[in-house]
Design a protein that fits this description.
It is a single chain. Helix content is about 30%, strand content about 30%. By secondary structure, the chain is an alpha+beta fold. The chain has one domain (about 5-160): Thiol Ester Dehydrase, Chain A. It has a 5-stranded antiparallel beta sheet. The protein is globular.
Length: about 160
């Protein structure tokens, strides 16, 4: 692979910001977790598409813990960028921040890792550009992403094993 095909993690960065309205609320009056999960998947997919310059499908979402509630009236900002690439798959790190637009207080609420596979025109897996890793943070995230991917593959083998 030539250096021309390498892309940095920041080149894939995507930021979505959405005002949480009453239609986003669950019966408790907080923002429904499914609304946040959809935003996380959309941002992650956009980052993967930006990197691969092709359509992608979601393969996995690692656990997502809701550390703080998100309220109606908050601005939710979702930041996503690539952390790791394989041959056809990519991992994105997605961070969610809830902001009270009146007070300006910003609260981190979620971090999730998602895996996407790039698709060609026929809907088959397609090779993706490698990541150009240059900072210690990028290196640490890339190594952790590689470890998470190895764990995911081992988990799939365990789940596929006959009972």
């Amino acid at each position: 692979m030539s250096d021309a095909t390498l892309k940095t993690p920041t080149a894939s960065h995507v930021r979505l910001s959405v005002l949480m309205n009453p239609e986003h609320a669950n019966p408790s009056g907080n923002v429904h977790g499914g609304v946040i999960m959809k935003l996380v998947d959309e941002a992650g997919a956009l980052a993967a598409m930006r990197h691969a310059r092709t359509r992608v499908v979601t393969v996995a979402m690692d656990s997502m813990t809701f550390m703080e509630p998100i309220y109606v009236g908050n601005i939710v900002t979702v930041d996503a960028e690539l952390t790791w690439t394989g041959t056809t798959s990519m991992e994105t790190r997605v961070e969610v921040i809830a902001e009270n637009p009146v007070t300006g207080i910003r609260t981190p609420t979620n971090i999730a890792y998602l895996v996407y596979v790039a698709l060609d025109e026929a809907g088959k897996p397609k090779a993706v550009p490698a990541l150009s890793i240059s900072t210690p943070l990028e290196r640490a995230r890339n190594e952790a992403g590689s470890e998470r991917q190895a764990y995911r593959k081992a988990q799939r083998r365990r789940e596929a094993a006959p009972l």
